[in-house]
Amino acid sequence: MAVVASTSQPHHTLWGDAFIRLRRNRLAIAGGIVILLIGLGAIFVPLISPYGYAKQDLDAILQGPSWGHPLGTDALGRDVLTRLFYGARISLAVGLFAQAIVLAIGLPVGAFSAWVGGRVDNIIMRLVDVMYAFPDILLIILLRAILGGTIYMMFLAIGLVAWVNVARLSRGQILSLKQQDFVTAARAMGASGRYITLRHLLPNSLGPIIVAVTFNVPRAIFAEAALSYIGIGINPPTPSWGNMIRDGYDVIFAAPYLMIFPAIAIGILMLAFTFLGDGLRDALDPRLRR
Amino acid sequence: MAPLLKVDDLATYFYTQGGVVKAVDGISYEVARGETIALMGESGCGKTISALSILRLLPASQVKIVAGQVLFDGVDLLKASKKEMRKVRGGNISMIFQEPMTSLNPVLTIGRQISEVLELHQNMKRRETVQEVIRLLNLVGIPQAERRMRDYPHHFSGGMRQRVMIAIAISCRPKLIIADEPTTAVDVTIQAQLLELLRGITRELNTSLILITHNLGIVARYAQRIYVMYAGRIVEHGPAQDVYRYPGHPYTAGLLASVPRLDEPRKTRLTPVEGQPPDPLYPPPGCPFQPRCTYGVPQCQRSKGDFVEVTSGHYSSCCLAQNGVTPWEKT
Amino acid sequence: MHLVPGGPWDRDKQLAPQVVENLNHKYGLDKPFVVQFKDFLWNTVHGNLGVSYSYQDRGVTNILLEGLPKTATLGIIAFILAILIGIPLGMVAALKQNSAVDYASVLFSTIFASIPGFVLGILLMIVFSVELHWLPTGGWGGIKQIIMPAFALAAMSAAYIARITRASMLEVMHQDYIRTARAKGLSERVILFRHALRNALIPVTTVAGPELAFLVSGSFIIENLFSIPGIGRLFVQGIFARDYGLVMGAILFYALAVALVNLIVDTLYAVVDPRIRYE
Predict the structure, then answer these.
(1) What is the pLDDT of residues C31-64, one digit of tens each?
(2) CB nearest C177 (choices: B55, B104, B152)
(3) pTM score, two decimals?
(4) All domains of chain B, ordered by start, with CATH?
(5) Mind listing the domains of chain A with CATH numbers?
(6) Which residue of B has its CA nearest to C272?
(7) Which of A151, A206, B261, B299 makes the best surface tag, with the fewest CB within 10 Å?
(8) Which of C216 and B77 is assigned the larger pLDDT?
């Protein structure tokens, strides 16, 4: 009578498993909630706030936090809280939409490079390496100066620089996919081997890309803030956290909170996305599957 | 004469999330001066853990030595202070590990890795060690020692690295060497060379050797006595030749039967030992081998693993053997 | 740069078209674009970065060279701070794994690795300059001026380095060769400093290069914030004023700095890890 140790586990799909693990990560959940709250606030602020972002009240300039203005007013009497949420619209929009461009360029370029292989692959990867090594902010500034001043161009500027790490990832995935194909063909096991491979490989390859994109968002948010801070980002009177900081500098001794609030906002949003990214990365890591 | 090393009822447990794993569950063995014993068994039976327990090299967090004594020259190592253990390690007892590829530090020269033991235990100064390192490297058969001592581990092959490990192990003339599967990760041709080297050295220096292995061929040739381990316990022990000719335990008999022999007709089928080792979290009651044993009787489940002398100096824990019945004997 | 709308001569008051034309001619701006680019490359190779359009009396090279020491000093000090804080923190966290120290340091690293130096700089400035009046809000001169920007710049790198050091140290301590070292009877201190450290620092060296490059490039925002007259600030001013020469020069400086840093780090890598040395 042989005793076979039974170590069977309940079968989970990759996504279900990952989701459960993600839920257990409190920092990631906290991050997600913060993003959600800021997002909702940003979307609904025109309806909720009694002030517009440009409404000046010259009788009430540079006031500290109060009941009427929970975060105070700026040098032109505009409500800081409202402007902060309008700024959130910009930050979130830039952060997220830039990723669309990142994916639109990065995925195909990486896949193409891996598929074709050879010298074309080498050249493209050289280019990627060079871009990767160079500090991204500088390139973004350059592109911004070239492309012009609208917010859509900002998406483009950021996207045109940030696509490189997604390209690398997608190339890696296609490369391993290529190998899988050959192995399966050689094994002559028929179509079933290939379908299973695709079914397992593709979800695995999406994982790191999702994580990379999640980590790209705070970088994009930072890029926008930095650009606005030095003056080539979003133009006043449209509030962006970057240009709010800039305006705040002029009155730093009189009203330091004007700089603090947008700065903290940037920090919190970036932190939230980073926590979420960390959580996703741990949740999707196939090695941690029990 | 008292044995050099006496392991007495050693028990080492792993505390895991799933439960307690009794990796070593009350084993005893001894080694006399100058003697070579073999500790034999499948992977996972606890032989490596028992060796690490002797030197207390276990990863601290989830593993604990819960019972027993390890008497080395009369002193219980399990009760020794950390400082005393450090003196013993490398100086009186040294260990050779299984994996030559990863057991040497990649950023230090091999000369350095040998000399640091000499500096530590023999109180030599750095400069004085040079000659000794060269001598040691020559002894273990590494050519051009003077040049090679400045090389890094990645410049050496697996077999050569094991020779370096042997050099490190013998450098301070220890009384006991523990060799944990020293040849498993190495080519077959090199295996023989390394073992011959080890035998020559231990004979010359009268060093005791514990040879841990799962390879029956090695055991026969190089060990005087064998201890057979299964699932964390010793199931049989005795003089090597005796155990081979008259195995006193069905597990040993099974192992012997599963190895191809030169004197058998070529077409004879190999008979492996059926089944798997028990789940370490849920060991079966009584004799640990009983679920896989073809000779099991109900008494086996109540067996407490006491030893009975099968032939002179040769003991088995099988309850059948206790009754003088050995149905697995070859004709 | 020519694609940017507006030219270098835009001022609040429009200059007479004739003047604009003359100026353009003087600086060769009316030549075809390709020719201009070629001239630029030629001049650059000869060390002549041309003339700045906003500071018309000085050459771009001179201007940038004035700003270089400040940027370099800031970057180097920040780098040293990052290493001096990051590596020990990572090591201690790894050695006392799962203790309070470890937990705190992991939390610290995660937070400071995500918050840009810019934000930290603002907070520091508010606390120490505005509220406490201990430190000036900017400028360049001595320790008081450099301490806040250096910390703000270093924080993100320090956190990242701490994280890498910790992870690397943890992995190293579980390696077989550490067990061998223990079996030799070596003390924990010797094992740490002779056997573990060099191996653990190898990944750190890998990131040191990009980190330094990051510090050099990210510094321009901090320079702006703290009004430090370095290359970063000149760069920003140049963009604003559409001063092509200045901007191109600054970018060149940055590119050179990045390349140089990477070269140094690659060499350092060979020193630390004997496995990759060429015979």
Answers:
(1) 555 555 555 555 555 555 554 444 444 566 777 7
(2) B104
(3) 0.78
(4) 5-229 (3.40.50.300)
(5) 80-288 (1.10.3720.10)
(6) B107
(7) B261
(8) B77
